[in-house]
């Protein structure tokens, strides 16, 4: 079994364990999420589902995404300056580095994140909600080198 299908089976097993029926539509949405492997928007998930299963409606895709979100099997990222919510299959705490130029989102996993969030919570007195996703903004390596080339051409 390849990695993708074992991930798919895990998602479907969790859906089933929550008492939801594993329908063709739900399988198609899970497949689309896994196939994207990044942080797709609902529209991107729908496009992917639609290509393989034209009969599945947009409402079904969006409802399935909501169900997966309710079960915390996926997480929604609201990115500043982006009108569309992005879905993240990585529900373990991680940092999402967002490029402010091209919109690329890169996952960074570090076991120091929990300690950092603990420190922030202690010092600020805030009850943090890391389940909202930790997001940092900047320029991705490609955009940084483009920007550097632009600056030096002046
Ligand atoms: Zn970029
Ligand atoms: Zn992520």
What does this protein structure show overall?
- With 154 residues, the chain is of the alpha+beta class.
- It folds into 2 domains: 3-77, Winged helix-like DNA-binding domain superfamily/Winged helix DNA-binding domain (Arc Repressor Mutant, subunit A, Orthogonal Bundle), CATH 1.10.10; 92-152, 2-Layer Sandwich (Dna Ligase, domain 1).
- 49% of the residues lie in helices and 13% in strands.
- It has helices spanning 3-17, 24-36, 42-52, 58-70, 113-124, 141-152; strands at 75-77, 86-88, 95-99, 105-108, 134-138.
- Strands 4-3-5 form a 3-stranded mixed beta sheet, with no helix packed on it.
- A hairpin with an 8-residue loop joins strand 1 (75-77) and strand 2.
- The protein starts with a helix and ends with a helix.
- Bound molecules: zinc ion (2 copies).
- One zinc ion is lined by residues 39, 88, 90, 94, 96, 107.
Descriptive labels:
binds zinc ion; Dna Ligase, domain 1; 3-stranded mixed β-sheet; 154 residues; two-stranded antiparallel sheet; Arc Repressor Mutant, subunit A; 49% helix
CATH topology of the largest domain: Arc Repressor Mutant, subunit A
- How many angstroms separate the termini? 54 Å
The shape, in one word, is globular
The percent of residues in helical segments reads: 40-55%
| Strand-residue proportion | 5-15%
Spell out the helices and strands N to C.
HHHHEEEEHEH
Placed side by side, the strands forming the largest sheet appear as: 4-3-5
Structural class call reads alpha+beta
CATH class of the largest domain: Mainly Alpha
- By CATH, the superfamily of the largest domain comes out as Winged helix-like DNA-binding domain superfamily/Winged helix DNA-binding domain
């Amino acid at each position: 079994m390849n990695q993708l299908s074992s991930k798919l089976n895990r998602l479907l097993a969790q859906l089933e364990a929550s008492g939801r029926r594993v329908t063709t539509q739900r399988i198609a949405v899970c497949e689309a999420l896994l196939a994207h492997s990044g942080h797709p928007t609902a529209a991107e998930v729908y496009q992917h589902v639609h290509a393989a299963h034209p009969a599945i409606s947009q409402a079904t895709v969006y409802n399935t995404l909501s169900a997966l979100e309710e079960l915390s099997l996926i997480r929604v990222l609201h990115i500043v300056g982006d009108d569309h919510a992005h879905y993240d299959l990585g529900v373990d705490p991680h940092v999402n580095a967002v490029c402010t130029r091209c919109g690329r989102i890169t996952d960074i996993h570090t076991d120091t994140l929990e300690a950092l969030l603990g420190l922030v919570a202690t010092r600020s007195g805030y009850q943090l909600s890391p389940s909202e996703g930790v997001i940092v903004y900047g320029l991705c390596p490609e955009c940084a080198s483009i920007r550097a080339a632009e600056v030096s051409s002046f």
